[in-house]
């Protein structure tokens, strides 16, 4: 289901957008941990640094008896064998033309810089950058064997429309490209497009954002009718894409 890109909120209500987003989308996106227990344990590949035991010390070299002195003329030493050339390291996949590392590109060409975030506070709120050009990244890493990589961004801010507004025009089959910090491109194909009322999102959290099941990316933003107050927009747009 697609819908029109929501208009910017009235000027008097714009300062409330962050509060509405964090209390609505962000808290519902991150979800109270009691609602989605699957979010309690992030996948292992999202932990920066994992302790490993130190390697065992090398075994002592065996004692070798000296060879008896040679008699007669010494033999000509054999020429040393050339050392094999080291195999070149595989180059990362080429990124989409013009796409910078650490960014996400939507089907319509909109690009957002990814910022790693963790849920905070007793209600497990997932902070979302106020900068329209940035999007929160939570959960599984790119190319993970399982779990959801969740990307959340504002639909608009201070009268400007953000790249995540494109989610309101997203279609099944379109591609989303994520380029990691090393410049490697990961391509995903949209498989589901959902419009959920804010009150419905917590009940779907375990299904949508769990760190189990096949790997996928989940993109989320606000939209629909502007209600104002602490509610903000009435709906959330959720786009799910699977590795292409």
SSE layout and pairings?
Elements: H1 16-30, E1 103-105, E2 111-116, E3 134-139, E4 148-152, E5 156-157, E6 160-161, E7 175-179, E8 185-197, H2 201-209, E9 216-228, E10 232-243
Parallel strand pairs: 2-3, 4-9
Antiparallel strand pairs: 1-2, 1-7, 3-4, 5-6, 7-8, 8-10, 9-10
Spatial shape? elongated
Structural class: mainly beta
State the major sheet: 8 strands, mixed, barrel
Helix content: under 10%
Which sequence of strands runs across the widest sheet? Answer: 1-2-3-4-9-10-8-7
Strand runs, count: 10
CATH topology-level fold name of the domain at 127-243: Sortase, Chain: A
What oligomeric state best describes the polypeptide chains here? single chain
Please mark out the parts with pLDDT under 50 across 5 or more consecutive residues, or reply none: 1-5, 7-65, 89-97
* SSE topology string: HEEEEEEEEHEE
How far is the N terminus from the C terminus?
Answer: 22 Å
Output the radius of gyration. 26 Å
State the CATH architecture of the domain at 127-243.
Beta Barrel
Strand composition percent? 25-35%
Region (Disordered): 50-110
Keywords: Hydrolase, Membrane, Transmembrane, Transmembrane helix
Transmembrane segments: 20-41
Protein name: Sortase family protein
Quick overview:
The protein has a domain at 127-243: Sortase, Chain: A.
Question: How would you describe what is shown here?
Answer:
- The protein is elongated.
- The chain has an eight-stranded mixed barrel with strand order 1-2-3-4-9-10-8-7.
- The chain has a domain at 127-243: Beta Barrel (Sortase, Chain: A), CATH 2.40.260.10.
- The chain contains two helices and ten strands, in the order H-E-E-E-E-E-E-E-E-H-E-E.
- The protein is mainly β and 244 residues long.
- It starts with 15 loop residues before the first helix and ends with a strand.
């Amino acid at each position: 289901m697609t819908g029109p890109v929501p208009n910017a909120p009235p000027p008097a209500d714009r300062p409330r957008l962050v509060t509405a987003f964090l209390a609505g989308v962000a808290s519902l996106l991150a979800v109270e941990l009691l609602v989605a227990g699957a979010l309690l344990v992030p996948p292992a590949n999202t932990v920066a640094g994992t302790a490993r035991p130190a390697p065992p010390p090398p075994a002592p070299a065996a004692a070798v008896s000296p060879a008896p002195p040679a008699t007669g003329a010494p033999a000509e030493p054999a020429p040393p064998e050339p050392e094999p050339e080291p195999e070149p390291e595989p180059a990362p996949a080429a990124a989409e033309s013009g796409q910078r590392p650490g960014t996400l590109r939507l089907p319509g060409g909109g690009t957002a810089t990814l910022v790693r975030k963790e849920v905070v506070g007793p209600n497990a709120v997932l902070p979302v950058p106020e900068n329209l050009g940035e999007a929160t990244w939570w959960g599984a890493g790119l190319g993970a064997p399982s779990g959801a990589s969740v990307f959340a961004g504002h639909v608009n801010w201070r009268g400007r429309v953000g790249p995540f507004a494109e989610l309101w025009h997203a279609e099944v089959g379109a591609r989303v490209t994520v380029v990691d910090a090393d410049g490697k491109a990961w391509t995903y194909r949209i498989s589901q497009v959902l419009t959920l009322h804010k009150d419905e999102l917590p009940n779907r959290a375990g299904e949508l954002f769990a760190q189990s099941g096949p790997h996928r990316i989940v993109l989320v933003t606000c939209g629909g009718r502007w209600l104002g107050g602490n509610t903000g927009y009435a709906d959330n747009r959720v786009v799910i894409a699977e590795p292409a």
